[in-house]
Design goal:
By secondary structure, the protein is an alpha+beta fold. It is about 50% helix and about 20% strand. Strands 1-3-7-8-6-5-4-2 form an 8-stranded mixed β-sheet, with helices on both faces.
């Protein structure tokens, strides 16, 4: 589950951009365990990622075909059962004090199970898309092995599982490694932009992907309006996603957030 503060965060457009993963992690760590917040499901976030991928200029990260865009839109589908249980608990009248749990605070065994389900769902949409999702999560697992010894066992096992899967997939597709990596970067980019929008972050961030040796910066310029430079789109984009209020009240149970991205 992705958590978003009930009150909109103040805009800090004048601040120096920080690495996006640092900002995302800090934001979710502060909200993890919150008694009040907005809940955005992982499948909703990944659907937004797919919409973003569908609008990327092909010269930025390469061309995504329809099946691969569908796979990107399903790249977090494996979290569905986990998120459904959190929603059920949030809606249970006897559990009004139930706290919200961010996906970033999920135990490694549950996270890798969700990742496996996500890869297998993506593969049903597209072999290439499934490969991209596999590599996306394998690289995350590999970094977790290095950074978090407590998670090493489960993450290392997942990384090995996906390496084995990819040995079968890559020859079938016939893409050069650098072509695959460029497309994986596109998936990662869409994932990060979607997470930033869903979390309601407003401070400037720098994304790790590059285009023509330039890093992307993303910032809020006004409420619901964001600036992404350099623009990876041909024109201004408007997206929407749904959120549930935790806990729901008599007045408010859900909301739809609109986001406009300019260059």
């Amino acid at each position: 589950m992705i958590l978003r503060a009930i009150e909109e965060l103040p805009i800090k457009a004048e601040a120096k951009p920080r690495p996006v993963w640092d900002v995302l992690f800090e934001h979710q760590s502060k909200l993890n365990g919150a008694k009040e917040c907005w809940l955005i499901t992982q499948p909703s976030h990944s659907a937004l990622s797919g919409e973003i991928a569908a609008n990327l200029l092909p010269e930025v990260f390469g061309k995504f075909d329809e099946g691969t865009i569908r796979a990107i839109a399903l790249h977090d589908a494996g979290w569905s059962a986990f998120d459904s249980e959190l929603i059920r608990a949030s809606r249970e009248p006897k559990n009004k004090t139930k706290v919200a749990t961010s996906f970033m605070g999920t135990p490694p065994k549950e996270a890798t199970s969700a990742w496996t389900g996500s890869v297998e769902t993506a593969l049903k949409a597209s072999l290439l898309g499934g490969l991209l999702v596999s590599e996306h999560f394998r690289s995350i697992a590999e970094s977790q092995v290095k950074e978090n010894p407590d998670k090493a066992k489960d993450m290392a096992a997942f990384a090995r599982q996906e390496e084995t899967r990819q040995k079968t997939l890559r020859p079938k597709l016939g893409f050069a490694p650098d072509e695959v990596e460029r497309l994986v970067d596109g998936l990662r980019f869409c994932d990060l932009v979607s997470l930033y929008l869903c979390m309601g972050i407003t401070r400037p961030v720098e994304l790790p992907q590059q285009f023509q040796q330039h890093s992307f910066t993303l910032r809020a310029s006004a409420e619901g309006i964001y600036q992404l430079i350099p623009s990876p789109f041909g024109h201004e984009q408007t997206y929407s996603f749904a959120a549930l209020r935790h806990p729901r009240t008599k007045e408010v149970s859900s909301a739809t957030f609109l986001c406009k991205i300019t260059g």
